[in-house]
Amino acid sequence: EAGVAQSPRYKIIEKRQSVAFWCNPISGHATLYWYQQILGQGPKLLIQFQNNGVVDDSQLPKDRFSAERLKGVDSTLKIQPAKLEDSAVYLCASRQNRDLKSYTFGSGTRLTVV
Amino acid sequence: QKEVEQDPGPLSVPEGAIVSLNCTYSNSAFQYFMWYRQYSRKGPELLMYTYSSGNKEDGRFTAQVDKSSKYISLFIRDSQPSDSATYLCAMRRGNTGFQKLVFGTGTRLLVSP
Known about the structure:
The complex is a heterodimer of chains A (114) and B (113). Chain A is mostly beta strands and 114 residues long. Chain A has strands at residues 5-7, 10-13, 19-24, 31-37, 44-50, 53-56, 65-68, 75-79, 88-95, 104-105, 109-113. In chain B, the strands form two sheets. In chain B, strands 2, 4, 5, 9, 10 and 11 form a six-stranded mixed β-sheet that branches. In chain B, a hairpin with a 6-residue loop joins strand 4 and strand 5.
């Protein structure tokens, strides 16, 4: 079974620039998550999708972050404009309904804002 | 106060040692408790999960949950250098798709040969 695919693996941008991350979940996983993991901290949920609808975006800084999941499969997370404090690893995860064991993370995109 | 507290370490042990990793939490509504292992430059991978209080064993790993003390533990027996990683505890209120997973900060474990 293929895992959760994310790209790019690394990105370096200047502050105030924009950046986008892409995630392809495991086939058949209806739930998709984006997490932010700052160095030395645990992952923090940014947004959760159920199919192509948003379930929870309470911790997404909506003035600069946006995410979409068209057709209920792939998802993109965008930051515009980026700030220094956005430097982190952005993890995508997917899950089958009600199956905690299926909760699978991708390897993440490491963003450095300079 | 954070919902989930975890000592960041690092915790250094010799090969073959028994390792104890712990988390405390403040929200008594948490019912599902998980341990993830995260290697450098990789995403977290699920090691074990437990529902409510009690113990669960899987090979060299044992997870314990004490809901009365709001305290969870992961024990690793006969630790190996390949166990060197960051261990994250995580918990959630329920198993419906709308329950958020809350992570600890992670404990970095170093097992020396």
